[in-house]
Amino acid sequence: MRFYAFCLGLLIAIGAQAEVFEQTLSNGLKVIVKEDRRAPVVVQQIWYRAGSMDEMTGVTGVAHVLEHMMFKGTKEVPVGEFSRRIAAAGGRENAFTSYDYTAYFQQLHKSQLELAMKLEADRMHNLRLSDEEFAKEIRVVMEERRWRTDDDARALLDERLMATAYQEHPYRNPIVGWMNDLKNMTADDARLWYQTWYAPNNATLVIAGDVDAKQVFALARKYYGRIHVGKLPLRKPYEEPAQLGIKRIVVKAPAELPHLVMAWHAPTLRDVDKDWQPYALSVLAGVLDGNDSARLNKSLVRERQVATSIGAGYANTSRGPTMFSLEATPAAGTSVEALEVAIREQLQMIVRDGVSEEELRRVRAQVTAAEVYKLDSLFYQAMQIGQIESIGLSQHDLPVILKKLQAVTAAQVQAVARDILRDDQLTVAVLDPQPLAAEKPQQGGHAHAH
Amino acid sequence: MRTKLIPFVLLCGFAAGAFATPQIQHWQAASGARVYFVQDHNLPMLDVAVSFPAGSAYDQAGNKGVAGLTHGLLDLGVQGMNEDDIARKLADVGARVGSSFDADRSAVTLRTLSSPAEREVALDILARVLQQPLFPQEVLAREKTRLIASLREAETKPEFLSEKAFGKAVFGTHPYGWQAEVADIEKVGRADLLEFFRAHYGARDAVVALMGDVTRQQAEAIAQQLTAALPQSESVAPLPAVASLGGSSEQRIPHPASQSHILIGAPGIARNDPDYFPLYVGNYILGGGGFVSRLMNEVREKRGMAYSVYSYFMPMQQPGAFQIGLQTKNEQVEEALQVVRTTVRDFVAKGVTEVELHAAKQNIIGGFPLRIDSNRKILEYLSVIGFYNLPLTYLDDFQARVEQVNVRTVNDAFRRRIDPDAMATVIVGGQGVAK
Fold it and tell me: Quick check: do B25-227 and B249-428 share a fold?
């Protein structure tokens, strides 16, 4: 029961899909099967198109809280029993919540697929949300928030950056939820969420491994097919109003080193054939940060030594808007301001001089190799399918995306560097490190051993 | 449903028992290196790992940090190529060099396409990284600066502070408990790296693991190519023995975080320990089995006191740590500590039940195919089998060894090996008031 603030990065959506079969059941559940017989194992993933972006004011975090509650039992499978049965079948299981979706998975020997499908289908419509279990689990979630965010300076910086960059879009709220909302959440909030979104017509089932697609479809009909269609609420479109000028924030938290994040609003893939900027931005991220001698690390960490680390991030597929981001830690003796100037110089060089064919070739070679390497992970291949389906594109788009990524030109990379990475679209967040002792004065700040 | 479960469980046995394990080929290269190879042509790729007894525990007491920097600088400059050439040429063929480093082992890994054009470039670079590292002076100076910055940053993080104090509390002066400090790093010079490399990266001690799309003949040539020019040094001496804890200790370190980080433990077991399987299976029940373990049940499921709580044995060349960990808000540290201690005490005193043991064996045996379902996972097994001199039949025997474990062997092993009254406890967080 983890959650990921999702950013699969440059190589997320690429792939020649062989042996993939899909069927939509009469209740609207889309079932996608990828046959892969390398090992006698199988993975089941169910993806609900309900993530933190679907939450309303005051109940942020409820998507993730419900994810926790999904392990708390149904009429037929008492609390704790889901995990016990999967474990007894030799399985591994977990779940994750993102801005865009919530997904649950099990990995098992292929002979145990039916058990996993039966259990997963059961909790799609028979969940029992008791007040007692909720009261305990909400405390677990608050501990999770303390651990992931409140006590982690850089996670806090990211959280506040999102809350600043987005004014209207619900991406401004953290996936785990604001602490105040968690403290005031009730079991009824979780129940409402479950009733609203957990329905076969709001889900995609992905099964990959040493299976026969026909048999999987039959099992899917048997266990998921009898679940009633849900009446999904109208989804309101969110359109983030245009940013009208650069935004800057400072976050103070216990740490030793400052940290800088620069994030620009950027387009995301909607039409895989006609859009071109998202592909160019993916390649730009590769040119800046695709290997240890890519521009940012080579010039700022290795040569000028103004940063101790630096990275670029861009996820080109999401239900909502996206951002292109750079983050860096200044080296001792370099101010955050000087580091920002040095980063801007690197971007200006691309705007002015473009990128080389050699750099493009290198990115393409890495993309091509990654296509082969991904075949070593069944789980990742299933992830890729579930993710792209859940954000509103199709797994049939994966090969198109790969082809388009390979066709990006130097002029396109230069154009997005110029047109997208503009100050009016930019939010800059700086971590201002605070000494540990100042936060809460200690008496005799020494460790006592005895 | 609930009443039917147990008889069903007891009757159904371990269906996944018969399962083909990879055929491991093993030989010694002319260089002296030991080679472990699994030939598999399903995917057009090759994974390689070369391991050395050159982890942080091989540092000298007065020269900490040398092992880590030696490892870190291997691919930052070699004969004929600077660090940028290396990174660029690898990227040009889509190859990835990775590494892993712990107290025992320093390893460099390579993942490459198996098509000759790509594979040969990638292996040529790996061969030079392993055998001709230059440890350039200016790169060392820069990496020391970066390492010092990250150490200073780490000193503000409760995870790091608790691990560091825990290592010291459990291992005392044994190198398993060492953590290089800023002052140690500042002292490291290029000559230290060259000498450490010469003494610890010898062909005789190298373990080469190869997994994927090459033939036996190609694998033999690759293993030799990667190790022929390694130093011809004497075998590295084994690490010193780990002393057991004389009694319990408790250390509280103040920190402004809202949660306290708690670690409890003691020296555990070595890789070749005869109690390995009973302890491994037993620990699944105590705190290794994710959502179905006793610690998870007591601390999280029943009381909502933590997001993560676990226990594990870290089997090493010498006994590594037995470690229990959790994070909980400062206000409920005492209560959480009591729950954990009671759970452990109870576990050791009263032992496990037949039902628990059966469920654990079902999971470990039934889940065995998941341990070897990818090239990456098999590569890691090859490295561990080679590095720790485990039997070549380790994977074949795994399920039977787990099957042989019974309630008596688990309870007996825990009583002999885990003394709840001789454990080190470290708590980072809260006011840091001595108890």
Answer: yes
Q: Do the chains contact at A88 and B368, CB–CB below 8 Å?
A: no
Query: How much is the pLDDT for A236?
Result: 87
Average pLDDT for A427-445: 72
Q: Which long-range contacts (CB under 8 A, 24 or more apart) does B337-341 make?
A: B337/B262, B337/B425, B337/B427, B339/B298, B339/B299, B339/B303, B339/B305, B340/B262, B340/B264, B340/B295, B340/B298, B340/B299, B340/B309, B341/B264, B341/B420
Averaged pLDDT of chain B: 94
Which of B3, B27, B5 is closest to B358 using CA atoms? B5
Residues B138-157 pLDDT 10s: 999 999 999 999 999 999 99
Q: Tell me: the pLDDT tens digits for B348-386? A: 999 999 999 999 999 999 999 999 999 999 999 999 999
Residues of A that are catalytic:
67
CB-nearest to B249 from A108, A375, A450 is A450
| pLDDT (tens digit per residue) in A265-306 | 999 999 999 999 999 999 999 999 999 999 999 999 999 999
Per-domain residue ranges for chain B? 25-227, 249-428
pLDDT tens for A199-219 read: 999 999 999 999 999 999 999
b vs e for B306-323, b when ≥16 Cβ sit within 10 Å of the residue's Cβ? bbbbbbbbbbbbbbbbbb
Residue pair B324/B287 in contact (Cβ under 8 Å)? The answer is yes
User: Can you tell me the ipTM of this complex?
Assistant: 0.93
Amino acid identity of residue B142, one-letter, is R
B94–A329 CB contact, under 8 Å = no
Q: Rounded to whole angstroms, how far apart are CA atoms A114 and B184? A: 57
Q: Is the Cα dihedral A169, A175, A180, A181 positive or negative? A: positive
Residue B105: closest CA among B394, B374, B398, B386: B386
**DSSP assignment, residue B85?**
H
**Amino acid letter for position A61:** G
Q: Which tops the pLDDT comparison, A105 or B12?
A: A105
Q: Tell me how far apart the alpha carbons of residues B46 and B119 are, in angstroms, rounded to a whole number.
A: 8
pLDDT digits (tens, 9 = 90+) for A80-101: 999 999 999 999 999 999 999 9
In which element (H, E) is residue A289 found? helix A277-289
Could you tell me the pLDDT band of residue B289, with boundaries at 50, 70 and 90?
Answer: confident
Do B339 and B303 meet the contact criterion of CB atoms below 8 Å apart? yes
pLDDT at B20: 78
| CATH architecture designation of domain B249-428 | 2-Layer Sandwich (3.30)
Token representation of residue B127: 């061969």
Q: Write out residues 8-67 of B within 8 Å (CB-CB) of A.
A: 9, 15-16, 19, 42-45
Which fold is adopted by the domain B25-227? Answer: Cytochrome Bc1 Complex; Chain A, domain 1 (3.30.830)
Torsion (CA) A206, A210, A215, A219 in degrees, nearest 10? -50
Interatomic CA distance for residues B435 and B101, integer angstroms: 36
Chain B residues touching A257 at Cβ < 8 A: 149, 152-153
Residue A111 is which amino acid? S
pLDDT mean across residues, chain A: 93
Concatenating the DSSP letter of every residue in A161-223 gives HHHHH-SSSGGGS-TT--HHHHHT--HHHHHHHHHHH-SGGGEEEEEEES--HHHHHHHHHHH
pTM: 0.93
The residue of chain B with its CA nearest to that of A440 is B256
Instruction: Please identify among residues 282-311 of chain B the ones whose CB lies closer than 8 Å to any CB of chain A.
Output: 289-292, 297, 300-308
As a whole number, mean pLDDT of residues A306-331 equals 97
Q: What percent of chain B has pLDDT over 90?
A: 93
β strands within A70-169, DSSP E: 92-97, 102-109
Residue whose structure tokens are 């005392």: B172
User: Any residues with CB less than 8 A from the CB of B262 and at least 6 apart, and which?
Assistant: B162, B325, B326, B327, B328, B333, B336, B337, B340, B425, B426, B427
